[in-house]
Specification:
By secondary structure, the chain is mainly β. It is built from 1 helix and 11 strands, in the order E-E-E-E-E-E-E-E-E-H-E-E. The N and C termini lie far apart (about 40 Å).
Length: about 130
């Protein structure tokens, strides 16, 4: 089955860190821009960060800029989201999605535009609480 798989979520105290991972099952991520979304209960889905297929370009939502860092290792078929200085408002289910269009990913973050992505993961829960 072709899908993305997220891991690394959990419970962390405010100010703590987590690293989320996104890998592909059944295909390679080399040709895809990867975007991280999150959705908190009762809130709309929010684009958090994206990274181009080569890793040469990345983009962040203002809400996470300076605290989160996205990276990828195509040799390992992995994309990472390092989350530092976590706050309770970062609590959400985090999803990764794959698209061939970097511009779509940026517009999803900047304008909340909705596109059909090639692949989605099932999500990983991040809870920031003391």
């Amino acid at each position: 089955q072709l899908q993305l798989v997220e891991s690394g979520g959990g419970l962390v105290q405010p100010g703590g860190s987590l690293r989320l991972s996104c890998t592909a099952s059944g295909f390679t991520l080399d040709y895809y821009t990867i975007i991280w979304f999150r959705q908190a209960p009762g809130k709309e889905r929010e684009g958090v960060s994206c990274i181009s297929s080569s890793g040469g370009s990345s983009y962040y939502a203002d809400s996470v800029k300076g605290r989160f860092a996205i990276s990828r290792d195509n040799a390992k078929n992995m994309v990472y989201l390092q989350m530092n200085s976590l706050a309770p408002e970062d609590t959400a289910v985090y999803y990764c999605a794959a698209t061939q269009y970097y511009s779509w990913a940026v517009q999803a973050i900047t304008h909340g535009r909705v596109y059909e992505y090639d692949y989605w993961g099932q999500g990983t829960q991040v809870t920031v609480s003391s």
